[in-house]
Design goal:
alpha/beta; 198 residues; 31% helix; globular; four-stranded mixed sheet; single chain
Length: 198
């Protein structure tokens, strides 16, 4: 292995470890914290269906869980909106393009439709479905999609943690993190399984 490959592997390990620490800290608010933070993930079956994954993604919903347009975001979250359109993002594509290069989705930022993101099928670390009807009443619901190996996701989550930790009205917020870290592993396992004819 060349020295540049060694450096790349070392860099990936560093980013991954930093990401794991950052994600672990996200769910570790003090018991008396006014912020409700839920970390969930999709099932392996759902993750295996991913064709293109662009991260980070962040959405804001109101008290009735309706998607809030960009011009309706509260001032304290204004700087986070840029992560929806930032050039710094992670993109994984699991299909081939005719020219063999990255798909156009990776070169140009995509928006979800007006229905927003589907976060209804989240599971907790115990494998049980998260009952989102049981989350506390809120003025704002933040839903962010990230992965521990995606450096911009770690930056976004750190910023959001700092904002909510210092926000006087933090109890107005519920924060859901959709952890997409396992997508590459699930896709690799599915590929290996199909090559063995299982």
């Amino acid at each position: 292995m060349s020295s540049s490959n060694h450096k790349e592997v070392a860099m990936r390990k560093t980013i991954f470890l930093f990401g794991l620490l950052a994600f672990a800290s996200l769910a570790s608010y003090a018991a008396d914290s006014p912020v409700t933070h839920i970390v969930g993930h999709y099932s392996d079956e759902q993750l295996s269906q991913v064709r293109t994954l662009i991260l980070p993604r962040i959405f804001l919903y109101d008290a009735n869980n309706h998607l809030v347009p960009d011009n309706g975001w509260p001032a304290e979250l204004a700087n986070l909106r840029r992560h929806k359109f930032d050039d710094e993002h992670c993109c994984l594509a699991y299909y081939k393009t005719p020219g063999g290069g990255p798909p156009p989705e990776c070169a140009q930022w995509m928006n979800y439709d007006s229905e927003g993101a589907n976060w209804a099928d989240l599971m907790g670390n115990n494998g049980a479905k998260i009952d989102l009807k049981a989350i506390p009443s809120h003025k704002w619901l933040i839903v962010d999609y990230g992965a521990s190996w995606c450096a911009p996701c770690v930056v976004l989550d750190k910023q959001l943690t700092q904002i909510l930790a210092s926000e006087k009205h933090a109890s107005d917020y519920v924060w859901i993190t959709v952890d997409m870290t396992r997508v590459p592993d699930v896709k690799e396992a599915a590929k290996a399984s199909s090559s063995r004819g299982e």
